[in-house]
């Protein structure tokens, strides 16, 4: 439907926080306006959408329950629709209904489960462009990246459909439905993908819509899934109010959580005495170490790709740990990359028939998050960090007069102080920190600053040395002269240290995590009593 061809040449500016207007007359491409996209979604699933509000999916029907709270687009500050906030009592009713559906679905033959999941995947594929445009408006993803989120979900589930018989073997579904509480950044390729695999494995599923974004996309997706007879439940509400129900209810068979360490810690505390199967993916400060290295052209390509979606993903690399003797060469490579980044309104075109723009990123998830990032940069500088680069919103591609309060220009800081939040935690935005080290021991200490991470990488000409150092990096996956990602299909995924609690996922590990195997089975993952890692990650 759409492709990407526009090229933008950014310009430097000293005022990185100032909003500016472009010299061209930009406007939202016809057919991609929010009203048009929402209208097409409502036509596909009229029962799921009310007047100025979304509905909740309970016991196979869409219900106008809960008090709606206005959703605002980070793209331009416009009002999108109402997100209903259900009560704990309403959520408990939904859990009981899902448990009943689970008992029936668990006895459904695998062949029928595969047929229904396949039908749902094809229905989602037919709605692919509208799902991607909903993501563009709701969470600010540029068109190409929004399409990739949808496509990865569907392609991944197709692979599982082909592999599920061998993966299941004699394994059986859990005793109750899987409860899914996920972050807003990858609604399709993380949340919907996981749900469809959980369904293939014989479990009913419950999903909580993220409060910050993605609810409309998820509403359409779940409407199409439910239409094919899949036992799915979709609820909206505050985490504090619904957590006790979606985490601790005895009917829940397992919990899958994706989010930050603060909320993850609260969820983990709620699981302590339940004995429930769980998969808790939490943040970590993913680091790229550079030691005795010379392939700067190769690194430049990785640096560019690393800024996709403004580093708002769990496998982004916001920390570079650089050998002192290489700092000048690293900066000669890094600064042109960060200065060339393209960002702005994901759906703005100059002429009606223009393709949607090719951008590295759009807004961050909210104006509040943008303010938090700017405050963190200011705080780090106050504590001694050196600003190597601070871009400007004047470099962005915006419609004249649009609200740009959720946009953050890229920034890079050298040596944030130990008391700075940016020294130890993930910014989850287009802000990088660079730390200079003088020894291998210091390199490893700085790469392990956050007590565990999901991914890390080492740039080193001597691969034998790199592999030796990698063994001491506290990350689930460590790349040698390349980045690591969540992975697709058969590739496992997890975290070390505080970045992950419970079962690992990916490939057959995801199926094992949501099914029952032999008695006293020792699953792969991080557990209070043991940690077990796959042989090759």
From TrEMBL:
Keyword terms, alphabetized: Oxidoreductase
Name the UniProt record assigns to this protein: Acyl-CoA reductase
Family annotation (InterPro entries): Ald_DH/histidinol_DH, Ald_DH_C, Ald_DH_N, Aldehyde_DH_dom
Pfam families, alphabetized: Aldedh (PF00171)
MF terms in GO: oxidoreductase activity, acting on the aldehyde or oxo group of donors, NAD or NADP as acceptor
Domain of life the protein comes from: Bacteria
Residue span(s) of domain Aldehyde dehydrogenase: 71-508
Organism: Klenkia soli
């Amino acid at each position: 439907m759409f492709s990407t061809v526009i090229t933008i040449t950014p310009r430097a500016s000293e005022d990185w926080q100032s909003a500016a207007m472009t010299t061209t007359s930009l406007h939202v491409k016809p057919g991609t306006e929010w009203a048009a996209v929402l209208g097409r979604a409502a036509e596909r699933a009229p029962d799921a959408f009310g007047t100025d509000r979304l509905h909740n999916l309970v016991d196979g029907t869409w219900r106008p329950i809960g008090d709606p709270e206005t959703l605002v687009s980070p793209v331009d500050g416009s009002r999108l629709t109402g997100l209903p906030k259900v009560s704990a009592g309403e959520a408990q009713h939904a859990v009981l209904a899902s448990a009943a559906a689970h008992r029936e679905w668990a006895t459904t033959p695998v062949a029928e489960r595969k047929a229904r999941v396949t039908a749902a995947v094809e229905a989602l594929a037919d709605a692919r462009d509208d799902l991607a445009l909903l993501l563009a408006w709701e969470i600010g993803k540029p068109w190409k990246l929004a399409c990739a989120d949808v496509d990865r979900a569907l392609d991944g589930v197709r692979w599982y459909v082909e592999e599920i018989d061998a993966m299941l073997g004699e394994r059986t579904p859990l005793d109750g439905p899987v409860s899914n509480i996920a972050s807003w950044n990858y609604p399709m390729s993380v949340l919907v993908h996981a749900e469809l695999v959980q369904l293939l494995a014989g479990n009913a599923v419950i999903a909580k819509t993220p409060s910050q974004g993605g609810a409309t996309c998820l509403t359409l997706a779940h409407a199409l899934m439910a239409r094919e007879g899949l036992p799915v439940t979709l609820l909206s509400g505050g985490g504090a109010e619904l957590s006790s129900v979606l985490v601790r209810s005895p009917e829940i068979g397992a919990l899958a959580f994706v989010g930050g360490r603060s909320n993850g810690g609260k969820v983990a505390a709620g699981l302590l005495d339940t004995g429930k199967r769980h998969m808790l993916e939490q943040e970590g400060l993913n680091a790229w170490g550079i030691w005795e290295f010379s392939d700067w052209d190769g690194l430049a390509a990785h640096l560019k790709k690393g800024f996709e979606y403004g580093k708002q993903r769990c496998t982004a690399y916001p920390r570079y740990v650089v050998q002192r003797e290489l700092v000048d060469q690293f900066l000669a490579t890094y600064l042109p990359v960060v200065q060339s980044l393209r960002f702005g309104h994901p759906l703005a075109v100059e002429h009606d028939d223009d393709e949607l723009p090719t951008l590295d990123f759009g807004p961050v998830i909210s104006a509040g998050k943008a303010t938090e990032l700017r405050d963190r940069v200011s705080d780090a500088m106050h504590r001694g960090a050196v600003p190597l680069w601070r871009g400007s919103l004047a470099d962005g591609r915006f419609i004249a007069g649009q609200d740009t309060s959720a946009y953050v220009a890229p920034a890079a800081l050298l040596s944030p102080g130990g008391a700075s939040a940016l020294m130890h935690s993930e910014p989850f935005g287009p802000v990088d920190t660079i730390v200079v080290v003088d020894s291998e021991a210091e390199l490893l200490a700085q790469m392990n600053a956050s007590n565990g991470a999901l991914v890390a990488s080492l740039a080193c000409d001597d691969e034998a040395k790199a592999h030796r150092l990698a063994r001491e990096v506290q990350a689930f996956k460590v790349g040698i002269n390349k980045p690591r990602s969540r992975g697709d299909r058969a590739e496992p995924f997890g975290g070390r240290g505080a970045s992950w609690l419970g079962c690992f996922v990916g490939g057959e590990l995801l199926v094992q995590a949501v099914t029952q195997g032999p008695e006293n089975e020792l699953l792969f993952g991080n557990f209070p009593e043991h940690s077990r890692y796959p042989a090759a990650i």
